[in-house]
Amino acid sequence: MSTPEFTAPRDALADVVAIPVTPFTADDTLDIAAHRTLLNRLLTGGIRTLTPNGNTGEFYALSPQERSAVVELTCEEAAGRAAVLAGVGLDLPTAIASAEQARAAGAQMVMVHQPVHPYVSPDGWVDYHRAIADAVPDLGVVPYVRNPHLGGQLLARLGELCPNVIGVKYAVPDATRFAAFARDAGLERFVWIAGLAELYAPSYFAVGATGFTSGLANVAPALSLELLAELRAGDWPSAMKLWARIRLFEELRAAQQSADNVTVVKEALAALGLCRRDIRPPSRELPLDQRELVAHLISGWGT
């Protein structure tokens, strides 16, 4: 059963859920001017759902003050133009405080990063998300599921306890497991987001997803929106032709357990002259040969 009071946020999740990068200056501070430029590029390009403090935004490399600033800036630029799904996480008090800050800034939803604690029990997973959802009952809440050992029954229980848990960013690289998880949790109860971006979007849409995350949208929002339109229309041949065009770019991001996930996107933006390529450890900048490859890959995209 769906939650009609969250109709607008649910609609926003069934879309391209873009994860903006966080640009840095030469002295490793937030580059506010470049950030505004990149956000407005996404918005004018047709993107209608933004996730500040997602993994592509280097969530784990930002200070608490930087995370707050990123959400506030995104909400300022998105006001009246797009929905904001703010990333929150880490220890429970920090996650709750971040969710409350996001609400105060104007976000409509929060995405809860997978708990990083080494000992995550099934009941504890429910308790963690319930505490955050209960703290912001007026916001839509979206768990970020990367753990293949979690079962859909857990999400079903969380949904019964928390009506504002409205969607799921599912990022286990297994379409069959996703199909089972979604049906065990409640296919219609939640909005299902393919959380591994364009590379997995066609297979996940085939079994129930209605939205997908995107870092590629930072570089070429038109391509992400085109893929969404083709998937919505069930035009699989056209969708797969587009998938083939972006495949190598996305495979570079996914290689070595996504070691260069953000790096490749920032390199593409640097090639376009939109921001610096700087990235914080434990990520790294690309070697020169791969920089040249990224520039070649995006040269025909009309960005």
Q: Can you give the helix content as a percent range?
A: 40-55%
Helix tally?
12
Strand/helix succession: HEHEHEHEHEHEHEHEHHHH
Number of strands: 8
- Rg, please? 18 Å
Q: Mind summarizing the main beta sheet? A: 8 strands, parallel
Low-confidence stretches: none
β content, as a range? 5-15%
Strands of the widest sheet, in order across it, are 1-8-7-6-5-4-3-2
In whole angstroms, how far apart are the ends?
41 Å
Sheet/helix structural class: alpha/beta
Oligomer: single chain
Shape: globular
Whole-number mean pLDDT: 96
Describe the structure.
50% of the residues lie in helices and 11% in strands. The chain is built from twelve helices and eight strands. The chain has helices spanning 7-13, 32-44, 64-78, 92-105, 122-135, 152-161, 175-185, 197-205, 221-233, 236-258, 261-271, 288-298, and strands at residues 16-18, 49-50, 83-88, 109-112, 140-145, 167-170, 191-194, 211-214. It has an eight-stranded parallel beta sheet with strand order 1-8-7-6-5-4-3-2. The model has no long low-confidence stretch (mean pLDDT 96).
Task: Give a brief description.
The chain has twelve helices and eight strands. The relative contact order is 0.13.
Name the descriptors.
alpha/beta; 50% helix; 11% strand
Question: What's the layout of helices and strands?
Answer:
Elements: H1 7-13, E1 16-18, H2 32-44, E2 49-50, H3 64-78, E3 83-88, H4 92-105, E4 109-112, H5 122-135, E5 140-145, H6 152-161, E6 167-170, H7 175-185, E7 191-194, H8 197-205, E8 211-214, H9 221-233, H10 236-258, H11 261-271, H12 288-298
Parallel strand pairs: 1-8, 2-3, 3-4, 4-5, 5-6, 6-7, 7-8
